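Worked Example 4.2. Read the sequence first, then its structure tokens.
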Amino acid sequence: MRYLRRRSGFTLVELLVVIGVIGVLIGLLLPAVQRIREAANRMKCANNLKQIGLAMHFHHDQHGVLPPTRTVGEGPSWAWLILPGLEQDNLYRMWDIGKLPIYKANPEALRVAVPIYFCPSRRPPTWGITQPFTQRGVCALADGIRGAPGDYAASIGTTGSDYSVPFPNGELAYPNGAFVLAKGLSFAALSDGLSNTVLVGEKHVPAGKLGEWPLDCSIYDGHNPSCNVRPGGPDYPIVADRFASVFGFGSYHPTVCQFVFADGSVHAVKNSISLVALGLLVHRSDGQPIPEGSY
């Protein structure tokens, strides 16, 4: 008697059905995985801002004022000045800011990427260094400084400048944010209240132009404020278009941009916030209440 053995296994049709089911499951899972990853990145970004806020408070405790946006004499930006509060004392000591301008500073020091200055939704700290740039006809320095970038900017208020600029009628527009050129402001100067005043937020950088001047040069570069400060308000909305070459706050998180306020709290502000409300948040002393539910 002959015994016939039947082969066990999938038929072609069954195999195709299984592959199809797996494909559908993967298609359903990918958006969930992406949402989980973005939620983790957003939480990490919020923690970065929290640490920056604490470093600002540390600077205020040590010096009685917040850091300036940048020092005079081609010095550093606020991002360098708060390094001791980020436990980066060794890096801070690599540049004698009292004697050396930025173009004579240790170039290796300027290229050190501090992880807290990077939002994981945009790029990792290992991203690289910014490109050199030319600014001929503006100052004695012909070429910009290569250095580590960063994804956060100090708030300079609604005027678009960290120093006084003239209006066409001859009047001066004074910087009204938490940070100004050359001198630090005390918390007492933020008369609208620490919980109502933005310190630092995510800075807009056009997609495809990471590391390119003028919107993404070295975060330590005090000569070029566009590297590390941003305005907000009626003339400077939160930038929702990632490809726009616009000077303002903006993030790679969907629908929101995150900020640390002067009281140390971190808030995700909707990109659609009214321009008036945004202006009130970045102004240190307008005396106006923030509309309830603005962000």
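Now turn to a second chain, presented in exactly the same format:
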Amino acid sequence: MNIKTKFKGRMLHILLGASLCAAPAALAQSDQDTEALQQKIERLSRELSQAKQQLAASESKRVEAERAVENLKENETKYADAADLGPSKITPGDLIPALEGLKIGGAIRANYVLGEYGGETGAPSSDFDDGGNFVLDLFRINADYTNGQFLAKFEYRFYNSYHMLHTGWIGYEMDSGDQLQVGVNRVPFGPGAYGISQSWFFDQHYYVGLADDMDLGVKYSGSRGDLSFDFAYYYGDEGHYAGSSKNAARYSYDAVVDNAGDGHEERNQFNARAIYALEIGEVAVDLGGSAQFGSLEGVGTGEDGDHYALSFHPTFKLNNWTLSTQLTKYDYDVESDLITFGAFDYTTEVATDAWIAGASLSYYHEIAAVDWVDYVIPFVEYSSIMKEEDGFNDSDLLTIGAAWGRGGWYIYTEYAASNGNDFVGNENYLRRFGDNPNEDWQGRFNINFGYYF
């Protein structure tokens, strides 16, 4: 064996020994790597679990936030339309699946009245006296139905000695949010459902059929950006229901046939309204205008005629303040300077040609420190029917008061003074919206207690 071969043999033994010595170290290192990997996996698993918990908490907060927003929207809707205030309505769909989407509610209201009533008997103030007394205002039943894009609304009212349909329509809501209503629905005229008014008395527009008026027809309502609009056709008024009068047992004021069988009936009325929302500095402004045209069918000694009304009604809002204004020109073109109107089971005479100016200033104030009230809306309102006929006196109405809301309760406390309104005072009530010959100022303090369910 030569030197080269011996060297190779020795090197082989050295490498083999080194390998045998390094094997345990390599195995140990491998175990350490595996343990480190397992620890890393466990750490990542814990982080993933924590991330899932945080995501679930975030989702829960999002759901709570969405519910809060929905509750806020509901409260805003309730404030906008105080008549819908109250607890959750009965939902028959909870018991009968076929009635899912139907909600039933109602209201009961009573008045405490203290005013200048000198003993002359005549609707609508024959139940009142100078000493102050409580009288039943109304009991009503409501039904609202929603099933997908199909809608319906029904309301029937009971008063002391008469009752009538208030609302009854079916509708469809388009994907755009536009809505179609067919039946007895609210005529689109003026700045809102109740005109400019926040009060129980309304303003003088209501008493000549130009605010909160219900008629039988078709109405289309929609919006495009900042512009909202309504178009409607009405075949006739909402009809006569149960009462002692011939044609006046109804909620809203219309031209009617009197108990002697003479008068007019509304036919083929067209309405259009547009309101554009804009901002001027910090003031939100709704610039609105309304138009109404229709015919009058004569009955008995009444001759056929027609009528129109045009109105400009801007509303201004700054923080919780609201100023609603309205200027209207109306004309009932018939053979006389007076036309018979009816509502609440009695008839009255209205000037056929006049202007109406009105304004309402109100403030919405939430009350957190008192348990028995959620908010109060103090207001002051003034409106006047300014007649075109020579010798006819204007009919003015001033109302100062506040509306109080708490859960299902909605209470009005008001003082009204007027020289020409059938619900204030008790003298010559048949002609106060007409020529108003006496033009006497009289007052009425009124508290209306309403519970809505």
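Notes for the reader: The CA atoms of residues 227 and 253 lie 29 Å apart. The mean pLDDT is 84.
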